Amino acid sequence: MRYIVDSGARRLVPDYAVPDAICVPLWNIDVHATLLSIAKVASQEIGVILLGPDPLGASAQIAEMSDPDHVAVVAGVLNSPWIRDHAPIAVQTEVGIDLVRPRHSVEKRPDDAELFANILPAASTTTDAWIASGNLVPGPDGLAVSTFSLLAKNEITSEEDLRNTLRADAKRLGIRDWLFVPGFPEDVSQHTDGMVRFLGPELCAVAMHSEETSSKISDFLVEQLAECLPDAEILQIPVSDGPKGFTSPLNWIQLDDHLLVPDFEDAPGLTPEGQAMLEARGFRITFVPSATAGLGGALRCLTAAIFS
Q: Closest by alpha carbon to 214, among 242, 237, 186?
């Protein structure tokens, strides 16, 4: 399903745009080592904001960074390290960047729902619809890709519902062409940032799942993207389930030509074939240990991109 709308001069900032900084939560259990590894590698190239309830206690982590001058600490209360879904969505306007916060329920994660409102007061606008930033992968020229779970969350069952519910947000977010596809059944998140990533204006990557039902979804996604972006090259990256469930190496962090790719250690990750495809297009790859196998996300989901 595609929703095409006139969003004027506003445009969703694309997936491949280099942020001014990334937010990395200070979370001292389970994924702590993964988060510190992200911060260490990213601080070599861009700003890193360490986000947590104890700024003074973060001084030891700053000393471990590759470039401590690129690191700042901001106080914030978290319910979870999975901050991407609550992170502001960046929109390019005629006068600069506008930050729009996705609407989220405050019942299960009340602190996360208010986190970015507290630390980024400029992000004062929120969407009308329920939208998770991990389920809104932005492509070139106002293209966005989400799964059907976004429609279900907003009780959208018809094209009329879609127009009535999402028209204002499409314009607010600078979405010109909104593509909706089924999620992988094995993915607990049902989000698109493990399915498709945009590496440049005419280059994207799609997770080609090995399981029968999901492989058909991968094929369908490739077909739909070819219609949306007829001049783009679509890299078909093999993915598969591990013993803990779905894992996707596409939940990487892109810093220009540098990809921070999750290494799931005890689960399938980026195959040599997939790595060769990316390196042949000029990308440098750094593998980051990611203790997130089967959790429906990895490096992108654990961080937030900040544009000023």
A: 186
